[in-house]
Amino acid sequence: MELLKRFLQSLALVLFMLAMLALGALGIYLFHLLGVWMARTTMRTVVGLTSIVVMLTLFVMRS
Prior knowledge:
The protein has one helix spanning 2-62. By secondary structure, it is mainly alpha-helical.
């Protein structure tokens, strides 16, 4: 009975550690996805602003 209890305790500990590792990996993955999304959004914003500035400059130079 004592052996079974000890085995279950160690099993619970191993499962707990695996769950912590999985949560950590998931958090890192989500953070990475957020970073990629933000980088893409920033690039889109920069490209959009640049094109607007170029169009305005061309418009001003033409007139």
